[in-house]
Amino acid sequence: MRHVAVIGSGPAGFYTAEACLRTFGNDVRVDLIDRLPVPYGLIRSGVAPDHQSIKAVTHRYEGVAAAQPVRFFGNVMVGRDVSIGELHDLYDAVVIATGAPADRPLSIPGADLSGVIGSAAFVGWYNGHPDHADLAPPLDGETVAVIGNGNVALDVARILAKTPEEFEGSDIARHALGPLANARTRRVEILGRRGPHQIAMTPKELGELDHLSRAAPHVALADLPPPADDAALEPGQRKSVTLLRGFAGESVGDKPVVIDFRFFTAPVAILGEGRVEAIRVEHTRLDAEGHAAGTGETEDIPCSMVVSCIGYRSITIAGLDYDEGLGRFTNENGRIGGAGSGLYCAGWARRGPTGTIGTNRPDGFQIAEEIAADLPVPAGKAGGDGLTTLLAARGVEAVSFADWRRIEAAENARARGAAPREKFVRLAEMIEASHNMQD
Q1: Which stretches does DSSP call E strand in 112-256?
Q2: In angstroms, what CA-CA distances link 374 with 69, 339, 366, 382?
Q3: Which pTM does this prediction carry?
């Protein structure tokens, strides 16, 4: 019997588990290990709460979770409760699928001021991630600067601009609803170093801005390239730019909130005494290679909060080589330490934060194939039974899939039909719910 440990129970973890089941059939046991008592990772705490159709992918994962050879060890932190070396001794293969849950640092002067928040923290706050439940973002000012030209920046801007009624049917954390409803935000400045043709925003997410009840998107006509230049774009990008052109042609009207796209603006410093008061940007132009080049002209934009949406990175784990520049684990085609090491990584932990949720599925199947090639014969290791014994000896209370279903049932009961679920945002609450609810 092969024993595979997958560290992380987000998309990469579940797709890897699914791939192992299909590759090895009845000759495998897969254990998903997560530091939180709840599975699904990015789907639960990263996908926007008003994008329930995307979160529906968990139905596929539930099928994997129901498979007899798959177990869940939630509330177990690798590096604290069990080491990589110990897992290596217990399992034929150890796969790192922890994603990229940390913010890429904003390396400009003033980035340490109060009111500068990374998108992982801000998104985690309104999504109910336990690490960020106490964030308390400063929403007492009229202008928020959002750095980045990807879908995460759009999510942040949209959440800031919505009314409480527009969150109906979402699973936004209840502790975020009041502060967002009472926020004084009247302007969201989305800052991008390059221009409309270089955005990483998809049409669906851009199109949502045109249907907000109290907010209107705005693009300066001067920032748009000649319409004829759009012909060189791939279809999805062309559709996104067409939407931006529409934003430039529309009047803001009497809507009280403006989502303003500021292209060709590179943040160079954040200003303030003790907290954010403004962000200094340098105006840019595109060089011959399409890179942003500074013009030397700067502008200070008054704001009370800055949300940095410039990318994510994986969190280091003791005993594993880490590429600081790329923000992921050092690997060669998913192998950590070469063939035969028994150590692998999948998803963003392998590639860095690129691709969509579905990109992780072929990634998981490639890792399963590599495990089969590297370890054609099981080594007779203890696997999950050995891990259970080790954790019990250390007093670590692991959460199983059955425990998670009790937590889920409790969250659904708390919502009382008003939302898909009302999330627990404290680890202690999750553990208590795993004990108290009946199957």
Answers
A1: 116-118, 143-147, 187-191, 215-219
A2: 21, 6, 12, 19
A3: 0.94
φ/ψ of 423, rounded to 5, equals -70, 145
CA 130 to chain centre: 14
φ and ψ at 412, to 5 degrees?
Answer: -65, -40
pLDDT of the chain, 439 residues: tens digit per residue: 999 999 999 999 999 999 999 999 999 999 999 999 999 999 999 999 999 999 999 999 999 999 889 999 999 999 999 999 999 999 999 999 999 999 999 999 999 999 999 999 999 999 999 999 999 999 999 999 999 999 999 999 999 999 999 999 999 999 999 999 999 999 999 999 999 999 999 999 999 999 999 999 999 999 999 999 999 999 999 999 999 999 997 777 789 999 999 999 999 999 999 999 999 999 999 998 889 999 999 999 999 999 999 999 999 999 999 999 999 999 999 999 887 899 999 999 999 998 889 889 999 999 999 999 999 999 999 999 999 999 999 999 999 999 999 999 999 998 887 788 899 999 999 999 999 755 4
Q: How far apart are the C-alpha atoms of 115 and 295, rounded to whole Å? A: 28
- Is the CB of residue 288 less than 8 Å from the CB of residue 304? no
> Residue 298 pairs with which residues in a beta bridge?
282
Overall residue count recorded for the chain in this entry: 439
DSSP H or E run through 29:
strand 28-33
DSSP string computed for 231-294: GGS-HHHHHHHHHHHHHHHS--TT-SEEEEEE-SEEEEEEE-SSB--EEEEEEEEE-TTS-EEE
| Cα 155 to Cα 309: distance, rounded to the nearest angstrom | 10
295 membership: H or E segment, kind and range: strand 292-302
Q: Please tell me whether residue 187 adopts helix, strand or coil conformation.
A: strand
Task: Measure the CA–CA gap between 39 and 200, rounded to whole angstroms.
Answer: 28
Residues 211-215: contacts with CB within 8 Å, 24+ apart?
212/158, 212/161, 212/162, 212/166, 212/255, 212/257, 213/162, 213/163, 213/165, 213/166, 214/161, 214/162, 214/163, 214/255, 214/256, 214/257, 215/161, 215/162, 215/188, 215/255, 215/256, 215/257, 215/258, 215/259
| CA 406 – CA 439 distance, rounded (Å) | 6
List alpha helices for 340-426, DSSP H. 348-351, 360-374, 383-393, 401-415
Which residues 6+ apart lie within 8 Å of 112 measured at CB?
Answer: none
Angle, CA 233 vertex, CA 245 and CA 283 arms, to 5°: 60
| Cα-based torsion angle of the residue sequence 299, 304, 305, 306 in order, rounded to the nearest 10 degrees | 10
DSSP letter at 175?
A: H
Beta bridge partners of 17: none
Among 318, 400, 339, smallest CA distance to 86 is for: 318
